[in-house]
Structures are given as C-alpha cells and as structure tokens.
Amino acid sequence: xxxxxxxxxxxxxxxxxxxxxxxxxxxxxxxxxxxxxxxxxxxxxxxxxxxxxxxxxxxxxxxxxxxxxxxxxxxxxxxxxxxxxxxxxxxxxxxxxxxxxxxxxxxxxxxxxxxxxxxxxxxxxxxxxxxxxxxxxxxxxxxxxxxxxxxxxxxxxxxxxxxxxxxxxxxxxxxxxxxxxxxxxxxxxxxxxxxxxxxxxxxxxxxxxxxxxxxxxxxxxxxxxxxxxxxxxxxxxxxxxxxxxxxxxxxxxxxxxxxxxxxxxxxxxxxxxxxxxxxxxxxxxxxxxxxxxxxxxxxxxxxxxxxxxxxxxxxxxxxxxxxxxxxxxxxxxxxxxxxxxxxxxxxxxxxxxx
Length: 354
What we know:
354 residues, Rossmann fold, 3-stranded mixed sheet, 13 helices
C-alpha cells in the first residue's frame, strides 16, 4: 500500500487513478476535503477494492501515526498543500500551517514509523514530496530553464512556503537518512482542476459568457504540463529515482498567459460556438502583487534517469482538457459554490479594471 496525502485534489486524484490503473499496490488517500478537495474527483476509483479514503489533516499527528501503524505503507506521496498564489497573498497563514508545519508533522511521523521497521523495509520505503517550479523564482526572458541546481528564489507566500517544505524534506533526508525524493513540477492542467486556476477558470467563464480575466499585459510565461504526464513521471521517480535527489518535471511548453487564453477561446469557438467569438470576453485586469514573469524547467535529468517524456503536447492536452469540462457540466456546477463565487468577486471583480 501507498499513502497519498491530498488525494482528493486535482493532481492527487489524477495520480490515484493513474496509480491504480498501472500498479498493483493499494492506495490510502488522506485528505482534509477543503475547498479544492472533492470526493467527486475519485468517482473513477471509488469502487476499487484497493482504494481507501481517510478524511483528516496532515497536522493531526495522532491520525498520521494511526494510519501508518494500521496500513504500513511502503511509500508516502505528499501532495497535500495550499497551492494558489492569489490565495496566499490574501491569507498567507494557511499556507504556513499546511505547507510548512504540515510537512514537518508528516516527516516526524514518518521518521518515527521507520524506526519501528526492519532494515529491509526502511531500505525499500520512499517519501515523495511533490513541489513546484515556483521555488526557483522568476527567470529572465531568454535565460536557460531552471535545473535541479538552480538556487531557490521564491517571491510569493505560496512559493516561499513550498521552498521551506522542500528544505525540510532534504534536511530530513540528510540528517535522519529518511529515504526522501523531491520533485518540482511546472503548471499542471487537465481534468478535475478547481476553476480558480487560469485554464479551468477560462473554460468555465467562457462557457458561461462571463469575462475572462487576464493579469497585467498577459505576457507572463508558464511551462504547461498535462496532469497525466506528471503522474506518470511520479510513478517512475518512485521506482527509479535516487533517494535524496530532486527531479524537475516540466511539459516543455512555455506559453504566455494571453496565448493560453486565446487558444482556449479558439477551441471553444470550434467545440461550443457562440454568437460571437469567445475572445471578445477577454478583459485585462490589474496585475497581482509580485507576479513572477517566467517559469521554465529543464527536465534533462529526469529523462536521462527514467526515460520519461511527456506524451501530450500542449495542443493535444489542452483540447482534451476543454473537452473534459464540456462533458462534465454537473461536476462544474457542484464545485462552483458560494465560497467560490465569493473568491472570484474578491480576487477579480473587485479590482479596478484597466
């Protein structure tokens, strides 16, 4: 069995489905079911006898200890985190508690658990910490993509909290010989992503005829990774990655935000045509504070050691993503709750328009 934290979220739920579709090991999913955690995301595996759900917080040490003793996992895959930069600007305290303190609590519980295991069990165990490219900070235009040795330079409360968690994991690997691996991924997209992030927000708003907010001049660059490709890479890192190492996982698909939004509009013009082109809904809004200009990842190390390469390019992955949201209006209706509407008002509609 493996223990997955945050498995009801976007990447975690896709990882669990990917894992159960390719591996024999069972999965216990620990999730606190906050706003982005959604049991609907696990419907594809809900009836699989190898899937177990436990609701709880990674800051609950007694619960973590109990789950480890009961299920004796051979790996922990740690997704659980607050993950949205905009939310970290409005409320950084939750990011410190979840991303830093929560990771520390999980590491301490894992360390205690491994002390009770045999030498062979300790040797085969893995703690996989899933992190972000944002810890490397903003890269200048034309500069090489970040490698695993690029110095950290986080610029938001979110990226600072993830950088701190990364450092804790590496410290435990070095000091306590905890068999940990860190991965840093680029922007994920695909099915079941909560519609506060750029791609699902654009799809959902465009389908509803609402304006499509774009920060600043829209020229901020991100490297886009289809979520299933990310999940495949994580499985390979678990089986082939070296303990104590870090691996970048990127999609080799650098796009400006405005390019992404316009491409979604073009796909929707084809798949769900309206009376006018969807691009007319684009509306530039004042930039968020400290908005990093460019992220990009060099994945040479991962490819060399595991053979991984993304199966989807940006065009194919984005089309699949748009089609998934068009095919799942009930899922959208359930997640777009009152809390979500309040968040959209706070973060976008209350801004002075440019």
